[in-house]
Specification:
The complex is a heterotrimer of chains A (328), B (440) and C (291). Chain A has helices at 13-28, 41-45, 64-74, 81-97, 100-103, 107-122, 131-156, 166-169, 172-176, 178-189, 201-216, 226-233, 254-258, 265-268, 285-289; strands spanning 240-244, 296-300, 303-307. Chain A is mainly alpha-helical and 328 residues long. The two termini of chain A are 23 Å apart. The relative contact order of chain B is 0.12. Chain B has 440 residues and is an alpha/beta fold. In chain B, strands 2-1-3-4 form a four-stranded parallel beta sheet, with helices on both faces. By secondary structure, chain C is an alpha/beta fold. Chain C folds into two domains: 1-85 and 261-291, Nucleotidyltransferase, domain 5; 102-249, Nucleotidyltransferase, domain 5. Chain C is 41% helix and 20% strand. In chain C, the strands form two sheets. Chain C has a five-stranded mixed beta sheet with strand order 3-2-1-4-5, with helices on both faces. Chain C has a five-stranded mixed beta sheet with strand order 8-7-6-9-10, with helices on both faces. In chain C, strand 1 and strand 2 form a beta hairpin. Chain C is globular, with a radius of gyration of 22 Å. The two termini of chain C are 38 Å apart. Classes of the chains: A mainly alpha (328), B alpha/beta (440), C alpha/beta (291). Chains in contact: A-B, B-C.
Chain lengths: 328, 440, 291
């Protein structure tokens, strides 16, 4: 690890890590005896646009996708008003915090980064998706959204006579979502959940698939995450933006290389200054590694939160005493 | 069946040249280098630390002795032919790097005898000629040549040089398309590292590679500080000197170069505080672009700076681009490092051998704004078709933003020096007249 | 720049030391009062000195009455008496702008070089081209051809006008063009026709340079070859732009040099400026400023 310390101009990762830990504590801490924020009823009404799982015991809130499926199934009688209101709140949240929900606040994102770190420590190169595969995954993402709606709504309409399928097909996405398996198993491991509650086979299978793919492919789940899919639609309207000053860009392609999600618009786009959207989760890795002063920046509305900086060879305290690189 | 390849270009390559011709080539080369050095040292404002870089680039200086000593102890010296060879890799394998591209005029003649065409690029001919008659003590005893197939001249030069030294050719994708070309180039770099390991007999370890990358990144950082000095209203270093310094990085050990450059930078900053300025007061701020100019072929920059201009920035693969981008690594997997290295040398490169090459135009425009450039001197070596063709496009683009450009075609000999001087002087007179006009 | 006390020194001198001829001009408030042309010798300094005294004697001006001496041309730096030296490119453009202010392209066809200047605003060059290591179309080229054809260089232009059917000359190198001309002579072609062919070739070469400036404006021809009526006629036929040739095209450089003298600007212009300023109403000025 010490080998790598010099290669960043701006260090965003520690701050992001702190925020992520905070988010995780907020969301899953109750299962492990932290004071329950969740007693405040307001939290129970707001659902988050990220993978904070419903299957975490005593969680103050959860991902809205569970609620969407549930609402589509049960809401036929009430003309889906509840779902609509909830979605409106979610959209508001997306506009306010954009994809900060993903890489800064999503507990499942932290899990995936853990897998990535493990791979790096073992010195195994990451798998890079081909362009075609990326497009395919993007399609898979929207197909998932489409299928969830397609399944959730008919099984809730009694006239269609499909209500008997509810026991097997309710919450179709949660059945296959690896987050469910992951959080249930961790709770079982740490004793917050009895082992007697057997996981369905499909959840275990998806967890295994997820673990293997997240190990070789950074942020594997984010690429098909349906919540990310919805956020991508609002990517340009939400307040947090990834911006680029094309004049300063030298097209060195560092941003495209370090991006965990292979989002290449940062590299390709030379006309618009707003280069986020699509797969970008605003993790700020490209801003960290961009060697051009002020070329890339993360903005919140009109304010610049942070921008790229020329790397300094001796930016750390320890770096001064270490051999190599410096010219002492 | 592996057969030892025989010389294709010269059957009796050792006995072909008379002693007299070899001696004359060496003598003239030394004279040319001395003349260039005198021109550099006779500048009125010149930092003292620059003498170190003079010594490194000197025809028969301490560096050539040092290199042969290093080789005597079993070290290997790798010649590079292009800015796109990852020097970190060479250093990590324990070998030293030397830039082969020659700026000496006299070795052109032996190469002319072999190739028989006056229209070829003089740099290619000079490099070949130096090898043919062993005219340059620094580049004489190389163990291997790394030649990326960038422009046509260098591609074929690498092939010809195979008669004298082992050559590793590298295939450069000439169209930059994201992953595809990157993958090709990464594989080429991996091939090079394998070849280097073969030559040096030493495995390139991850740690060594990262350490070398750090050293070179330090060099990049220093160079960007140097650019800050040149960007200021009163630069204390002339364009020729800056080019000398950055070219020395290709010949020197990078660690020592870093040390000396940071010394130089602090000296330049002190000079700036004293209010000194390199070149004339109110000189025209010139950007140098086009074909490379290797020391001692500093004819054009010398003329520009003698006629009342100051070269505050350049866009040459023998200048700014040598140190322009750092390698940024986000992981310590070997593959990741190789990819980082490969992409640093490939994507930001604005060599005209790439097509389309809009980045170059954008970079020129950007530096025009950042450095307060008033005119662009576009230099093409004779036979440099790639630069020649791009010159027109760049001129038209610059015309749109109201920056004048003059295109100079030159060779290594000094026969056209007066012609070039007239044009450069007229160009600078024009810039100053424009300046007066805008002042009214 | 040299500061000179200008009181009682109304005359400026421009010396154009070309590759073939040296031109000296004496100027008084923008009017030519005397000029002289001689072949450039090995000592351009001495030559121009004696030429200057000759002119001054001829018009009865003392040497002390001369303000600035500006030299130009390829030998500009060997003129000891000059106060400043400017390149011929700048000077020809200056002279051309003085004579025909709306000319957009200035073509100087000199002894050793062809220079094409594109003019920008206020008589400042925006862009220029020169012949690159190729002497076709220059004065020297014409000299060589005239010698090969045994024609006096002064008659070359007029004789080619008599041609009824121009020969075709292809070679674009002085030496090869000469051998082509010799072979045409051997074939028994008429000298006038060969000359016309040569002029056509030269005109095409100049046109290529003019076209490379990508400007469609008025063309001003100057330099020694501008006196060659044959070249001018051929050019006029193919250039497809308005074209002006002054009376003494070879003197334009020296004129420009003399005009380069840093005399204080004539005050007439200033008055015009103030009048214009008063005419602009306040609101208009405000609007102009605010945009």
């Amino acid at each position: 690890m010490e080998l790598m310390e010099m290669f960043k101009g701006r260090n965003i990762r520690p701050w992001r890590f702190l925020v992520q830990i905070g988010a995780v504590l907020f969301i899953i801490g109750q299962s492990y005896g932290l004071p329950p924020f969740g007693t405040y009823p307001i939290f129970r009404r707001i659902f988050l646009p990220n993978a904070s799982c419903r299957y975490i015991n005593d969680a103050p809130t959860s991902c809205y996708y569970y609620q969407v499926q549930d609402g589509f199934t049960t809401g036929f009688a009430t003309n889906y008003v509840d779902v609509a209101i909830m979605l409106a709140v979610v959209v508001l949240l997306i506009i306010l915090l954009g994809r900060f929900w993903c890489s800064w606040l999503c507990p499942f994102g932290l899990v995936q980064e853990g897998f990535e770190k493990l791979r790096e420590l073992l010195g195994i190169p990451r798998y890079r998706l081909k362009w075609k595969q990326r497009i395919l995954l993007r399609r898979v993402k929207y197909t998932i959204i489409f299928l969830t709606v397609l399944i959730s709504i008919p099984i809730g309409i009694s006239a269609l006579g499909l209500t008997s399928c509810q026991s097997t097909f309710a919450l179709p996405f949660c059945q296959v979502c690896p987050a469910k398996g992951f959080f249930l198993i961790t709770q079982q491991i740490f004793g917050a959940e009895p082992w007697s509650n057997k996981l369905p086979l499909i959840a275990i299978a998806s967890l295994v698939v997820f673990s293997v793919s997240a190990f070789f492919l950074p942020m594997a789940f984010c690429r098909i995450c349906p919540m990310g899919g919805l956020m991508a639609l609002f990517g340009r309207t939400s307040l947090p933006l990834l911006k680029k000053d094309p004049d300063k860009c030298t097209k060195c392609r560092i941003c495209a290389r370090v991006c965990p999600l292979d989002h290449d618009r940062v590299y390709e786009d030379m006309e618009k200054d707003d280069v986020g959207g699509e797969d970008c989760t605003l993790c700020g890795k490209c801003v960290e590694y961009c060697p051009e002063e002020g070329c890339l920046s993360i903005n919140y509305g009109p304010f610049t939160l942070t921008s790229s900086k020329r790397p300094r060879t001796r930016n750390t305290f320890l770096g001064r005493f270490r051999k190599g690189g410096g010219d002492t | 069946m592996k057969e030892k390849r025989t010389s294709r270009y010269l059957k009796d390559k050792d006995g072909y040249f008379s002693e007299e011709q070899i001696d004359r080539t060496k003598k003239r080369s030394r004279e040319m280098e001395e003349a260039s050095r005198t021109r550099l040292t006779s500048q009125k404002v010149r930092a003292k630390t620059l003498t170190y870089f003079d010594e490194i680039m000197k025809y028969d200086g301490a560096r050539s002795q040092e290199l042969s000593d290093f080789q005597g102890k079993g070290g290997k010296i790798i010649g590079t032919m292009c800015v796109m060879v990852p020097l970190e890799l060479i250093n990590a394998s324990g070998a030293k790097n030397v830039r082969l591209c020659s700026g000496y005029y006299e070795p052109v003649h032996p190469a002319n005898e072999l190739l028989g065409d006056a229209g070829l690029c003089p740099m290619v001919k000079s490099t070949l000629g130096s090898k043919m008659v062993n005219a340059n003590p620094i580049t004489n005893n190389i163990n291997m040549v790394v030649g990326p197939a960038t422009c046509d001249g260098k591609m074929k030069l690498a092939e010809i040089l195979e008669d004298w030294v082992p050559v590793v050719m590298m295939n450069i994708p000439r169209v930059k398309i994201g992953e595809t070309s990157s993958d090709i180039w990464v594989k080429e770099i991996e091939y090079l590292s394998r070849k280097l390991e073969e030559v040096t007999g030493k495995r390139i370890s991850k740690r060594a590679l990262v350490n070398e990358i750090k050293k070179w990144n330090r060099g990049h950082e220093l160079w960007s500080k140097m650019l800050d000095i040149r960007r200021s209203k009163r630069p204390t270093i002339s364009g020729q000197d800056a080019m000398l310094v950055v070219q020395a990085s290709q010949m020197d050990d990078i660690e020592r170069w870093n040390k000396k450059t940071s010394q130089l930078i602090s000296e330049l900053q002190d000079m700036q505080k004293k209010g000194m300025i390199a070149g004339e007061d109110g000189a025209a701020r010139i950007l140098l672009a086009g074909s490379p100019m290797m020391y001692p072929n500093f004819k054009i920059p010398a003329i520009v700076e003698e006629s009342g201009g100051t070269i505050v920035h350049d866009e040459l693969c023998s200048g700014f681009r040598l140190m322009s981008d750092p390698v940024m690594l986000d992981g310590i997997t070997r593959k990741g490092i190789m990819r980082g290295l490969a992409e640093r040398y490939f994507f930001p490169c604005t060599c005209p051998c790439f097509s389309p090459n809009d980045e170059r135009i954008r970079r020129i425009k950007e530096s025009i704004e950042a450095f307060g450039i008033e005119g662009v001197v576009f230099h093409t070596l004779r036979g440099c078709h790639l630069s020649n063709i791009e010159a027109t496009k760049i001129e038209l683009e610059l015309r749109d933003i109201g920056i004048p450009m003059v295109k100079l075609e030159s060779e290594y000999d000094e026969g056209d020096i007066e012609q070039v001087r007239t044009r450069v002087e007229a160009f600078i007179e024009m810039i100053k007249a424009r300046r007066e006009n805008e002042g009214i | 720049m040299v500061d000179i006390d200008l009181s009682g020194k109304p005359y400026d001198v421009g010396i154009d030391v070309g590759a073939i001829a040296t031109k000296v001009i004496v100027l008084k408030e923008g009017e030519i009062v005397g000029s002289l042309v001689k072949n450039t010798s090995m000592e351009p300094g001495k030559l121009s000195d004696s030429m200057l005294s000759e002119i001054l004697e001829g018009i009865g001006v003392r040497k002390e009455e001369v303000g600035y001496i500006v030299s130009t041309g390829q030998g500009r730096r060997s003129i000891g008496i000059a106060d400043m030296a400017r390149t011929e490119i700048t000077c020809f453009a200056k002279g051309a702008h003085h004579l025909v202010p709306d000319s957009e392209i200035v073509v100087d066809i000199g002894g050793h070089g062809i220079r094409v200047m594109r003019m920008g605003e206020m008589g400042v060059i925006a862009d220029f081209r020169t012949n690159d290591k190729c002497s076709t179309g220059t004065g020297c080229f014409m000299d060589t051809m005239a010698m090969a054809l045994e024609v006096n260089i002064e008659d070359v232009g007029d004789r080619s006008l008599h041609s009824k059917m121009a020969e075709h000359v292809n070679a674009s190198c002085t030496v090869f063009a000469e051998s082509e001309v010799v072979s045409l002579i051997a074939k028994g072609k008429i000298t006038d026709d060969i000359l016309a062919g040569l002029h056509n070739m030269v005109a095409r070469k100049i046109l290529a340079l003019v076209n490379s400036t990508r400007s469609k404006g008025k063309v001003f021809i100057c330099g020694g070859v501008g006196r060659n009526t044959g070249v001018v006629k051929e050019l006029r036929e193919i250039i497809n732009r308005e074209m002006v040739v002054p009376e003494d095209p070879h003197l334009v450089g020296a004129l420009g040099a003399a005009l380069m003298a840093p005399r204080p600007k004539v005050s007439v212009k200033k008055e015009v400026d103030t009048v214009q300023k008063e005419e602009v109403p306040f609101m208009k000025r405000f609007l102009r400023w605010s945009t």
